[in-house]
Amino acid sequence: MTLIEGHKPIIPAGGVAVWDVDPYHTAILRDPLDYYAELRAQGDLAYIPRYSVLAVGRYEITRKVFSDHENFVSSRGVGLNDFKLEDPWRPPSIILEVDQPDHTRTRKVMSRALSPKVVKGFAELFHETADRLVDDLLERGTIEAVTDFAEAFPTTVFPKAVGMTDVNPRHLVDYGAMVFNAVGPDNALRREAMRHAGEIVPWINAACARDRLSGDGLGAMVYASAQDGTLTEAEAGMLVRSFLSAGVDTTVTGIGNALWCLSQNPGQWEALKADPTLIRPAFEEVLRYTSPVHTFGRTAGRDTEIAGFPVEEGSKVLCVLGAANMDPEKWGDPEVFRVDRKPVGHVAFGAGIHGCVGQNIARGELEAVLGALIRKVDRIEPTGDAVWRPNNAIRALDRLPITLIPN
Amino acid sequence: MVKVTYVAHDGTRTELEGDPGDSVMSLAIANGLDGIVGECGGSMMCATCHCYVDDDWQAATGARMDGEEDMLESAVCEVTGRSRLSCQITLSEALDGLVVHLPEEQV
Fold first, then answer.
1. Options 3.10.20.30, 1.10.3720.10, 3.90.226.10, 2.60.40.1940; which CATH number does B2-101 get?
2. In this prediction, does ipTM exceed 0.85?
3. Fewer Cβ atoms within 10 Å of its own Cβ: the N or the C terminal residue of chain B?
4. Helix %, strand %, coil % for chain A, to 5?
């Protein structure tokens, strides 16, 4: 059998809309809103012949498929490659790319390490770092917010939270970009990101070793589970690697996208300043509005169905989270950015048993960043065009020139 | 339809009607009820949908789910034997008339 992008080609069931599109075209990745709308207009399910995959983008069906871990498995990869048919580029993640019951064991260790209670313990670190960073940036006035702000914050606090002793902010950001580009097709983006693998991957693996971590961070908490027998030493190292895969590039994107939303919507910035209780809901709205992880896949683990259409075993299904978060059927006026929307149920962090295990730390970081901004900054003014950086799974900015004007 | 009564900390009672398959959390959110936040949307990753199941409904709602205990440790109000995360209570005909009590705060 000839594979397409590392998975089995399929013939869609009769009646499924066939849509000739490349979801990974750089123009779509830069500005996905029309693509999201067209995907939803295809119906509950579409077939994309270019990659021989199914795709969902309407809210209800996307949420349903994405959280249906019984029928749509993660162990065969959350990208286009089917790990059952081809070896992935790195050993599969033992929390992301795994099914029950193995998943339950690792998930418990990680959700304990990343619980709201643990994250509260980092509040001081996050707030002090955010205050200092915003003070520095205010002195400079005009900044390139992706490098100066969005990357600077997580690459300062996250390695400390994990307890890393090796420091290389560039490697951390680039490793994230690599992991997320790898879930797409074998296109120029993925090949370019992978070009750095030889240098970055060994550095990442070495940085996850027990003796490279302090005794009081998240990394040590995970290794403690190896001591009590829940995990093997090697598994603990793999879970620490998950912190680095999923914990840096994502929050960099969250901060950049938040600054973009607030600089583009001065009225909403004023509303946030006027009511600090909206800080946490405002971040949820940033997540809904920009969907930092725009697409993740699942694989049909057996013959099943989506919206009444038969789906054969081995089918790859793109779950376009960005489209679901912009579905007017669910949100009414999704194209409006509103800090008081409180969009509970958005799928930016996924849904179900594989829902983002680091979401509390992301919220903690953003609470600190937005809190520092509203205390110290009067206005956030764009000083040039925002430029998006295409990535096969992440919707992130490449450049965001802004001026911060102090109170 | 499945009727659920939410009793706020100040004693205010709100009666809502949901469908089998809804969670006690999602029904509250869909109706804009104060007192349940549900920040993580039901992935059992936060503890902001904490509730106390009424004594009469303990048996019908059953035991806590795997992992729920861990997450309840992060709840801001006192956790008792009656504490549940309301996202983990799925409505069914057997729960028609369910009464849950809400804590003073969720965050």
1. 3.10.20.30
2. yes
3. N
4. 50, 15, 35
